[in-house]
Design a protein that fits this description.
Blueprint: H1 6-9, E1 20-24, E2 31-36, H2 40-59, H3 62-78, H4 80-91, H5 95-115, E3 122-124, E4 132-139, E5 142-146, H6 154-166, E6 169-173, H7 179-191, E7 199-201, H8 207-216, E8 220-226, H9 229-239, E9 245-249, E10 254-258, H10 264-276, E11 286-292, H11 296-307, H12 328-343, E12 347-349, E13 363-366, H13 373-376, E14 383-389, H14 392-399, E15 404-405, E16 407-411, H15 415-424, E17 429-432, E18 447-448, E19 451-452, H16 459-462, E20 465-472
Parallel strand pairs: 5-6, 5-8, 6-7, 8-9, 10-11, 10-16, 11-14, 13-14, 16-17
Antiparallel strand pairs: 1-2, 3-4, 4-20, 9-19, 12-13, 15-18
């Protein structure tokens, strides 16, 4: 088994700047290490090297690229425990969740290793007797990405794997809060035979500088971003000058709906999985709960009893199910939203939030109104506001009353209702009697202001390819 150590993690960063990032454990405040940041000139050099290297990488066979990706997948699998520990230390999520993310992130590499060999063109019936028409797919060129801290491995592999499989080179800026996970998996990619100029990690706490260089460079032809809608809109605007291809996975405000014919125990388990995974810090997690008035009290009682069994603490400790939020700003936001909701009439069910540290025990809010700020904003914390509804029509209106459209969830056993609601919800992904929907084999992405493009599935590799039409003339019958 290949080993991951600090020296190998930092081996590719010698050309970067003298300024460093201080990486801390959100559960303990302990300093984990320091990572060099990239300078403007070094980043420009990397983009040029990626541009030159991509030409050779694109000429390799799909089978060769697939073999490199499969070796990368296997190395991540072999180092799952080490990678999970790195992730828990710098990001905070419980170790079991971190192991799950490592496996989930690796699944995209395995998937796109296979898709590399299936980037088929097509033949088109000619419009005249002397012509033959066809299309081929070619890599778009240099691709770059900006990824968040909440899934520091999966958000990279979901973008890097299809880019590399397509024949693109790939430069990623991970969050300044969680660069170690990115550096670790990239070191394994190099061990797997992926050239260093083809896959690069750039570390910086100057997001504006990185974004401006990525979006302005004429050598970069694709930008993929996962983050806030506000920043995504800005990046799209900046990409317009060079007409870059963009993929945007932006904010969410997922409704979790429980109809009166639902299997309540199943809905509770789905709610726990969707809402409290990663301490509620996921873009697809349930943000607001709508429960039919006939079962509202029963659902809340069972929900409350179940979350009381969750254990908040250091993700490395045995039995912990909810780790810390990522930083003080995140805790302050969640606390503010709870306090504001209570001032607006909501009632808080849950342990008091401790003043010290970054831990937020799971919370339920009842007596919540659809118009409250906590319902209209993305919470990004372990808080579940629960709202009553009486009719399907009113429910659909409330569920769609948001500029976001990433994920939605609902529980019902009525097949007519299931079809009606699934078609009416204005979301890119809908979980029906299921609280966990992400998988490498299905397209991930949103509608409205939650983004454009899809990641994963067969659609994911098309985001990194151009379709070229070939017209062969002068062919005699």
């Amino acid at each position: 088994m290949h080993q991951i150590n600090n020296a190998s993690l930092l081996s590719g960063l010698s050309e970067q700047g003298s300024h460093t990032l201080t990486i801390t454990n959100p559960a303990t405040g302990e300093v984990l290490g320091h990572v060099p940041t990239v300078s403007e000139s070094a980043l420009q050099d990397m983009i040029e090297a990626a541009h030159q290297g991509q030409k050779a990488w694109a000429k390799t066979t799909a089978k060769h690229r697939a073999q490199c990706l499969n070796r990368w997948f296997q190395l991540i699998h072999d180092n799952q425990d080490d990678l999970a520990r790195i992730m828990t230390l710098e990001q905070g999520k419980p170790l079991a969740e971190a192991k799950g993310e490592v496996a989930y992130g690796a699944s995209f590499i395995e998937w796109f290793a296979e898709e590399a060999k299936r980037t088929y063109g097509e033949t088109i019936p000619g419009h005249t007797a002397d012509r033959r028409l066809m299309t081929i797919k070619q890599p778009i060129g240099v691709a770059c990405a900006i990824t968040p801290w909440n899934f520091p491995i999966a958000m990279i592999t979901r973008k890097a794997a299809p880019a590399l499989a397509a024949g693109c080179s790939f430069i990623v800026k991970p969050s300044e809060l969680t660069p170690l996970s990115a550096l670790a998996i990239t070191e394994l990619a190099y061990q797997a035979g992926i050239p260093r100029d083809i896959l690069k990690v750039v570390c910086s706490d100057n997001a504006r500088m990185i974004g401006q260089i990525f979006t302005a460079s004429p050598l970069i032809r694709k930008l993929s971003f996962t983050g806030s809608t506000r920043v995504g809109k800005l990046l799209m605007e900046q990409c317009a000058d060079t007409v870059k291809r963009t993929s945007m996975e932006l904010g969410g405000n997922a409704p979790f709906i429980v109809f009166d014919d639902a299997d309540i125990p199943a809905a509770i388990q789905g709610a726990i999985a969707s809402k409290f995974r990663n301490a509620g810090q996921t873009c697809v997690c349930a943000n607001r709960f709508y429960v039919h008035s006939r079962i509202y009290d029963d659902f809340v009682a069972q929900f409350h009893a179940t979350i009381n069994k969750l254990v908040t603490g250091n993700g490395l400790d045995e039995g912990v199910t909810i780790g810390p939020v990522i930083n003080q700003a995140a805790k302050d936001k969640v606390t503010h939203l709870i306090n504001q909701a209570c001032q607006q009439g909501a009632t808080q069910l849950g342990e008091p939030i401790p003043a010290d540290g970054l831990f937020v025990p799971p919370q339920i809010l009842v007596n919540v109104d659809h118009q409250m700020d906590i319902v209209q904003q993305e919470i990004f914390g372990p808080v579940a506001p629960v709202i009553k509804f009486d009719s399907d029509e009113a429910l659909i209106e409330m569920a769609n009353d948001t500029p976001y459209g990433l994920a939605a969830y609902f529980y019902s056993q009525n097949i007519k209702r299931i079809w009606k609601v699934a078609e009416a919800l204005e979301y890119g992904m809908v979980g029906i009697n299921e609280g966990i929907i992400s998988t490498e084999v299905a397209p991930f992405g949103g509608v409205k202001e939650s983004g454009i493009g899809r990641e994963g599935a067969k659609q994911g590799i098309d985001e990194y390819m151009e379709i070229k039409y070939l017209c062969f003339g002068g062919i005699n019958e």
